[in-house]
Write a structure and sequence with these properties.
Blueprint lengths: L7 H18 L6 H8 L3 H8 L2 H25 L6 H12 L7 H14 L3 H22 L5 H24 L6 H16 L23
Helix pairs in contact: 1-2, 1-4, 1-6, 2-3, 4-5, 4-6, 4-7, 5-7, 5-9, 6-7, 7-8, 8-9
Length: 215
């Protein structure tokens, strides 16, 4: 975690520089000196506030996760209707929001996933991230599906969101956001069609509007 005292604008500048460096040369070749050069600061500032490259990577991922959470929360707070379908669509849309699919952010995500397998602090962030996605999907599915069916639907959609995003990130042509969203919507509609209360229209009333998304 970064030390207190750094101005938010400088912190954001260093995080952006980290993503740009990863975009340019990959995580392995991203050094404190390279990040400092991107940010136009001395390497000593990074070491002082973040303790080095690993600390800055953790802070960068916390920022990316926070941006995603804010994006999804805003989408859910402005929905025209409080239905499970609308809320889950907002979660899907947030995961494929332009703030999450830029080249630098996608490469940072990939670097984070790979590093989380070896670094406990990043692994904890990844677990929180996964659990929040599953929990919020499950909460919405539970409003219209039996418990076990809701859990299975949430696990399936979470895996689909991550899978579509990952395949798009690795594809030479990049991620086709519209196609990814349509595929996720199709899966969502198939699951909701299994609801004993399904009628092709609204799917229940919201139980807890304050229980907004994950990251």
């Amino acid at each position: 975690m970064p030390k207190l005292g750094m101005q938010p604008i400088r912190r954001r500048q260093l995080i952006q520089a980290t993503m740009e460096a990863i975009d340019d040369v990959g995580l392995a070749d991203t050094t404190v000196m390279r990040i400092a050069k991107h940010a136009g600061v001395s390497a000593g500032i990074i070491s002082h506030y973040f303790g080095g490259k690993d600390g800055l990577l953790e802070a960068t991922m916390r920022q990316v996760l926070g941006d995603l959470g804010h994006t999804v929360t805003q989408r859910r707070m402005t929905l025209p209707e409080d239905t499970p379908q609308a809320h889950i669509r907002a979660i899907i849309d947030g995961n494929f929001d332009r703030s999450q699919v830029s080249q630098s952010v996608m490469k940072t995500w990939l670097a984070f996933w790979a590093s989380s397998m070896h670094r406990p602090n990043l692994q904890r962030l990844q677990r929180v991230n996964d659990r929040r996605l599953y929990s919020n999907l499950c909460c919405q599915f539970r409003r219209c599906l039996p418990r076990q069916q809701a859990r299975n639907a949430a696990r399936g959609l979470a895996a689909m969101i991550d899978g579509l995003w990952l395949r798009g990130a690795l594809a030479p042509e990049g991620l086709d956001v519209d196609r990814a969203r349509r595929l996720a919507y199709d899966y969502l509609n198939e699951q909701l069609a299994r609801s004993p209360h399904h009628s092709g229209g609204h799917h229940g009333h919201i139980r807890n509007p304050a229980a907004l998304y994950r990251r």
